[in-house]
Write a structure and sequence with these properties.
extended, 140 residues, single chain, 2 helices
Length: 140
């Protein structure tokens, strides 16, 4: 009974659509910043190094390098202050948490990019060139 009640209460505070991203992806997180009575959007871009929690309590950590110094920021996934999350790159990783990137400097921080698979119906059809074979050659 209490579990179902908790899920109902959590569901009201969760976003309807959450963008799909994984650990190792480079993302742009659009955050709403309040300055006095004005609102503006600030973009924090970096690599997702961790995800934790579940439901309305789910968090993700984004790391980037600013002027040679590593900066990490934790965001609640379902926060109303997060306007948008845009995935700019995907990387191949074999870990759930990328904390080892904290010890790396320079080009060692780079991750191998994941190739995005394109469905067969989305690919443009290649034109055939060369000599004709079989029945097509005999017809001429």
């Amino acid at each position: 009974m209490s579990q179902e009640l908790m899920k109902l209460v959590e569901k009201t505070s969760m976003k309807a659509e959450v963008p799909k991203f994984e650990i190792g992806d480079t993302v742009d997180v659009h955050c709403e910043i309040l300055e006095g009575d004005k609102k503006r959007i600030q973009v924090f871009s970096g690599v997702v190094i961790a995800r934790s929690g579940s439901g309305s309590r789910e968090m993700f950590t984004v790391r980037r390098i600013v002027q040679g110094e590593g900066v990490e920021r934790k965001f609640p996934l379902h926060s109303p202050r997060i306007a948008n999350i845009v995935v700019t790159r995907s990387a191949v990783v074999r870990r759930a948490k990328l904390y080892f990137l904290r010890d790396r400097v320079g080009k060692a921080v780079r991750l191998k990019e994941r190739r995005v698979e394109v469905k067969a119906e989305d690919k443009p059809k290649a034109k055939r060139r060369g000599r004709k074979r079989g029945a097509a050659a005999k017809a001429e």
